[in-house]
Amino acid sequence: MDVPRTVFTKRNLVWLAVCLSIYFLVFFLRSYGILGNYHEITIAQICINIMLAVSLNLIVGFTGQFSLGHAGFMSIGAYATSLALRSRPDTIGFLIGITIGSVLALVVGVIIGIPTLRLRGDYLGIATLGMAEIIRVVFLNLKITNGAAGLMGTFRAANWTWLYLLTVMAVLAINNFVNSSHGRACISIREDETASEAMGVNTTAYKIIAFAFGAFFAGAAGGLYSSYFYFIKPDLFGFLKSIDMLVIVVLGGLGSITGTIISAILLSLLTTILQDFSSVRMIVYSVILVIIMLFRPQGLMGTVEISHVIDKFARKDKEDANTVS
User: Fold this and answer.
1) Which of 29, 38, 81, 272 could form a disulfide with 223 if both were Cys (CB 3.0 to 4.6 A apart)?
2) How far apart are the first and last CA of the chain?
3) Domains within the chain, CATH numbers bracketed
4) Tens of pLDDT along 186-231?
């Protein structure tokens, strides 16, 4: 089977080179001991937050649905992966667990999305918040999850390679979805749901698809979290976790994958710096949000992607060259 020529475009090759460069840079810095355990934990947290925030941006930013339940989907993937690793503490157990956790999160997303996504605005946010709390309370009362005590001593299957690979795959999959006909239908719902319905777009179906797709990658991020860190408990996936992800999305720009990645990196680093001052962290988050809403309400990148900026300069250079010739 012939590979489409569009796969080997100049832009794709450049992005491939950038991704490989980042991977090998971190890999060699770790190998030579320049990056210690403290830095590795920070990098792991950045990768997990990127997956969570980009998947939430698909729901909130691109589809325009206000969701406060992303931590619930993350907890499903985390507990599924942790339980799988307890049964089989190796890479196979990790892959089985993260697959089951992601699929379960997707199924729960569809089940919950069917009734709740008929709501709009604040009502949808309240409904998704209630859903996340129900999931948390279920894990809090199950014997298999060890209740409030949580699960400890999980085998660490996730390393830099798995963290980076799954993060890149999640970003690539969501980016391709957004730029597909289905993604454009979701964006049309965000812009004007009534007009989309009038044009024949099945708005409820597309909202459920985006919700389920986002839940799938939130489950995968949860699986990475539980397989990298040794301890999970229901309180880790509470209301504040969903708020953290929403802050990242709003700060980066609703409808910008690039902005979300930049915001996830910045806030993850800020969280690491302020980890000994948990109460101050929320104050700093609040101040950042107030400043952003006052001076740049569209977020750091708005709806702009870095590829758009590169294309703009490329077109300008081409026009200048044509003018000179």
Assistant:
1) 81
2) 41
3) 13-324 (1.10.3470)
4) 999 888 888 888 888 888 889 999 999 999 999 999 999 999 987 8
